[in-house]
Amino acid sequence: xxxxxxxxxxxxxxxxxxxxxxxxxxxxGEISVTALEKIPQGHKIALRRxxxxxxxxxxGYPIGRAKAEIRAGQWVHVHxxxxxxxxxxxxxxxxxxxxxxxxxxxxxEGFRRTDRKAGVRNEIWIIPTVGCVNSVARExxxxxxxxxxxxxxxxxxxxxxxxxxxxxxxxxYTRRILADLIRxxxxxxxxxxxxxxxxxxxxxxxxxxxxxxxxxxxFLQCQDVEDEQAAAMExxxxxxRYAKGLKRERIDACExxxxxxxxxxxxxSGITANPAVGAFSDLLISKGGTTILTExxxxxxxxxxxxxxxETPELFERTVDLINDFKDYFISHHQTIYxxxxxxxxxxxxxxxxxxxxxCTQKSGGAPVRGVLAYGEPVKExxxxxxxxxxxxxxxxxxxxxxGAQIVLFTTGRGTPFASPVPTVKxxxxxxxxxxxxxxxxxxxxRMTEGRPIRETxxxxxxxxxxxxxxxxxxxxxxxFHDMAIFKQGxxx
Length: 493
Fold this sequence. Notes:
By secondary structure, the protein is α/β, with parallel strands linked by helices.
C-alpha cells in the first residue's frame, strides 16, 4: 500500500492513504517531504511552501487559498485553508469533445413493462398522495407482506409529509415526483392512495401521470369508502396476481439508467470510490447506457469541467442555469453558497467545497454531457445527464429514481444505512469502513489504495451492477429499508 498519493502533477498537496506520523519522510515521485505533524488518513500534506493567500492545488485545480503560510510537510486542512469561491460568476463555453469508443453488448435479466420500459425489480408500491394517509399506507404495507412471493419481490409503502398545504414550486415538485414514481418501471403494480380533500388529489395527479396501464395502476380515495383497509387489500390482491404473472427476461444493458450520488465523503472518496464510479459510468455509456449525476451544490467549484464537456452550446447554457439557479436559491434564503462540507466530511479530510466538488464530480467520468434535467424531469437522452437536485442524500437519491434511474450508486467514506425507492448500492471509499459496516456496504472501492487498477475496479463494479439489475438484493434491501424524500423550498399553509 502506498503511503500518500499526489493526484495530479500540478498539485502542491498530497493525500495520506494511511495515518502518517510526525517525522516520517515520504517519497512522492521526485519529491521528498518530512511530515511536520501527524497527517490523518484522507487528509492533505503540503509538498512545498504555500504562501499566505496562495492557491492550494488538488486534482490539478485550486481547492482554496492558504489562510497563512503553509510549510512543506504541514497538515493542510480547515485551520489553514479557506474557500476561494465567490457567488455569481460569468462562464465562457470552452468545449472539449470527449469521445467514448463503443464496447461489446452486455445483458441483465429484467422485467419488460407494457410501455416497453425495463425494470430491475418486480415490486408493488403504495404511494400516498398526501401525508394524511401515511399511517394507512404503512399498515397496508404490513398486511400485504403475505402477498409477496414468486416473482413478486416486495410490497413497499412510500410515506411522505406533502401533497397538501403547499404552494408554487413545492406543490409542483410533489406532483411531479409522485407521478414519476407511479410510472417507474421497477414497480410491477402501484396503488395510489388518496384522501379526497387534498390539493394533489387523485384526479389532479392523473393529469401528471398521463396514460397508464389499468392492470398495473390502481387508485383508492379513502374518504369514498367505508373500510379503506379492506378496499385497499382487495386492490393490492389484484395487483399481486398481475405482478406474479411477470417474469424476468434478457435485456440489453443499454436500457439501464444508473443514478450517481455521494454522501458522508472522506479524503479518499475522490481517489477511490468516485473515480471508480466515473469509470463505471464511461463503461456503461460505451455500451449505450445512461447515467445521471446530481447534487448541484456539490458541483460548485468544479462546474466548468462539466460545462465544457457539454455537447452543444444550448446544453452549456442549461448547465449555467442549473448552477446559477441553485446559487440564487442559497442567496434568496440569505445563506452562503459554500456552507459545505459537513462535519463528517471535514473529519474525513475534506476542507472546502471546492475540495469536495472536485472529488464529487469524479463520478461523471470523462463522457460528454448529453442531457440537463430539471428536478422531477424524466431522462430522455442516453449518455451522461446532469440533474437539478440538492446534495441531501434522501432528496437527491429520490430525485434520481424519479428521473428514471433503476439503481443508484452511492459512494461514501463515512457509511450510511439509508435507502431510496430503487436499489441503492453503497460503495465505500476505504476498506476499513467496508469491514466495520459490512451490513451497510455493498462494494469496497478502498482496495484501490492497495494498487487495484481503476479499470479493473470499474469492470468489477459493472458486473456487480448487472447482478443487482438481475435480482441480487443490496444490503439496504436485505434490511427491508426503502426511503423517499421530496424537495421542499417554500411556504407551508
